[in-house]
Write a structure and sequence with these properties.
With 146 residues, this protein is of the alpha/beta class. The protein has one domain: Rossmann fold. It is built from six helices and four strands, in the order ββααβααβαα. Strands 1-2-3-4 form a four-stranded mixed β-sheet.
Length: 146
């Protein structure tokens, strides 16, 4: 982490190998603990900072309560240091959540349509019924021999 004129650059958040759904991210928590009034967090991309729109709003709220702000390099309109930037952040975060919800809805509808056509979720079984019976009989024989 390098600090220059009230700006914190933390590339380790981007490098963290945590699943998108994992809430506990030690590097982010360490960054939030070190924030001071006037600091600006530079992020390459908002998707590297948060896991969802609610998570993003929560993080921005925590950051602003500490007197710090966020700037995104990829989304240049994200700059919570200005009222216009805050407005754009709120608007675009809502659009992003809407897009995510649409993708989820379409996926669920597609899976449901596939099920009505007789398709099952997941991969096809490797063993048919005959092979399963043979396998189980081998296991039972082995148990009896012991």
């Amino acid at each position: 982490m390098k600090k220059t004129r009230g700006v914190i650059y933390d590339l380790s958040i981007c490098k963290g190998k945590y699943p998108r759904t994992k809430a506990d991210r030690p590097e982010l928590n360490r960054l939030l603990d070190k924030l001071r009034k006037g600091d600006v967090i530079l992020v390459l991309d908002l998707t590297r900072l948060s896991r969802s729109t609610n998570d993003l709003f929560s993080l921005v709220d925590i950051i602003e309560k500490k007197g710090a702000n966020i700037k995104s390099l990829k989304e240049s309109w994200i700059d919570t240091t200005t009222p216009q930037g805050k407005l754009m952040f709120t608007f675009m975060a809502g659009i992003s959540q809407f897009e995510s919800d649409l993708i989820s809805q379409r996926t669920k509808e597609g899976l449901e349509a596939a099920r009505t056509r007789g398709r099952k979720d997941g991969r096809k079984p490797k063993l048919d019924d005959n092979k399963k019976r043979l396998y189980m009989s081998c296991i039972n024989r082995k148990k009896q021999q012991q």
